[in-house]
Write a structure and sequence with these properties.
Aspartate Aminotransferase, domain 2; Aspartate Aminotransferase, domain 1; single chain; Kynureninase; pyridoxal phosphate binding; four-stranded antiparallel beta sheet; 2 domains; 409 residues; alpha/beta; seven-stranded mixed beta sheet; binds pyridoxal-5'-phosphate; 13 strands
Length: 409
């Protein structure tokens, strides 16, 4: 297809996009220095409303309610936001989700608690291409407890299949830890089938939702997932380092024993008594004082998801990645660029990874011209397409810049 046809097609897709107007709610979308932001899956853009909300938090809630705000709202805020997120984006009933530490720390806590629910079992299953922090946390826990890691050698351009899971789990498996959407390839796990395969072995499944929450529909309760974590600074636009969330299936909560005992997760936090007794319910996942000041911005995006719905967000996400692949096919494959993401939309999350030897070092040149994907070793560019803040024309501008740079290379 000639350039002008694809340009016209992008404009047409933007005109027909029912979510197009949401883009204007974000900071920086008209900034001439950033013509294509393709990394919303690493750090989402802030909502314009976040500035006023953070300012109001400082001057009103913190500044004038002072310590009283703990009683009035902050003590329960991690649970209140957890429940809202659960209803809007996780397919989870109330009382099972809490916003807390970083993803890494919540992973550690949930892994340890999950293993304690399967005493006598000695193996943890994880895949070779899982996000580094997931692998490292499991390596640490395995070393700490003398357990064995069983690795799934998954396809780096695809992801873990239910068959691969079934082949590796068994009576010794305590826990399986997988990403719902693979951070590199964008592969979307068949979560219901994988959950079933894990449960057949009697093990538990911990799903990492970092790259799916806010971009791909999630149905934790219906799928039967046991435990989940996810971050809030990617598609939920919570800001750099905004705290992650944890989901614990209700049936496990009465016996759920996470390893970092702190006063904020104890049964009577303000009594300052002797001896740790965990709080009832999901509060026991909390350890110390929650990062209230970093929980402001994410609430704006959760409200948008409540308004728009995950079905419409997913439809836009699929349309964006389909269009990106069409552009790559027309403009980049003639240079030898390869697609390292699933071509089947049903098995693909919200980003697309493309590979070429010339991409090494190209990211800086793209960043200089205001086109911002990220580079993934050894030679991949990752195009992250955040459904509420990315336009089709922006995708076109980004892929055109990559073509320009390839032509120069
Ligand atoms: C982004 C991401 C993380 C990040 O963990 P932090 O503790 O927030 O640094 C973890 N797992 C996956 C799959 C991710 O994509």
């Amino acid at each position: 297809m000639p350039d002008s046809d694809l340009t016209a097609r992008a404009a047409e897709l933007d005109r027909a996009d029912p979510l197009a107007s949401y883009r204007q709610l974000f900071v920086g979308v008209d900034d001439p220095d950033v013509v294509a932001y393709l990394d919303g899956n690493s750090l989402g853009r802030p909502l314009k409303a976040s500035a006023a909300e953070v300012s109001d938090f400082v001057s009103h809630t913190w500044g004038s309610r002072l310590i009283r705000a703990w009683d009035e709202q902050w003590f329960d805020l991690p649970l209140a936001i957890g429940d809202r997120l659960a209803a809007a984006a996780l397919g989870a009933a109330g009382g099972q989700t809490v916003v807390g530490d970083s993803t890494t720390v919540l992973l550690y806590k949930l892994v340890r608690a999950g293993l304690a629910l399967r005493p006598g079992r000695t193996e943890i299953v994880v895949d070779r291409d899982n996000f580094p922090t997931d692998r490292y946390v499991l390596e640490g826990v395995a070393a700490e407890l003398g357990l064995t890691l069983r690795w799934i050698e998954s396809d780096p351009c695809g992801g873990v299949t239910p068959e691969e899971v079934r082949a590796v789990v068994g009576p010794r498996t305590a826990l399986v830890v997988l990403s719902h959407v693979a951070y590199r390839s964008g592969y979307l796990l068949d979560a219901p089938a994988v959950t079933e395969a894990v449960h057949e072995s009697g093990a538990l499944l911990l799903l990492d939702l970092c790259h799916s929450v806010g971009s791909v529909p999630v149905d934790l309760d219906a799928w039967g997932v046991d435990l989940a974590v996810g971050c809030t600074y990617k598609y939920l636009n919570g800001g750099p380092g905004s705290p992650a969330f944890a989901y614990v299936r209700a049936e496990y909560l009465p016996d759920f024993a996470q390893p970092i005992w702190g006063w904020m997760g104890s049964a009577r936090a303000f009594e300052m008594g002797q001896g740790y007794v965990p709080a009832d319910g999901i509060r026991r996942v909390i350890s110390g004082t929650p990062v209230v000041s970093a929980m402001i911005a994410m609430q704006g995006t959760i409200a948008l998801i409540e308004e728009v719905g995950m079905t419409a967000i997913r439809a836009k996400s699929v349309a964006l990645t389909e269009f990106a692949l069409r552009l790559v096919d027309a403009w980049l494959t003639p240079y030898g660029v390869e697609v390292s993401s699933p071509t089947d939309a049903e098995r693909r999350g919200g980003h697309v990874t493309i590979d070429h030897p010339a991409f090494k070092g190209m990211a800086e040149r793209l960043w200089e011209r205001g086109v911002i994907p990220d580079f993934r070793r050894p030679q991949g560019l990752r195009l992250g397409l955040s459904p509420l803040s990315t336009s089709f024309t922006e995708v076109l501008t980004g892929v055109a810049a990559i073509r320009d740079e390839l032509a120069r290379a």
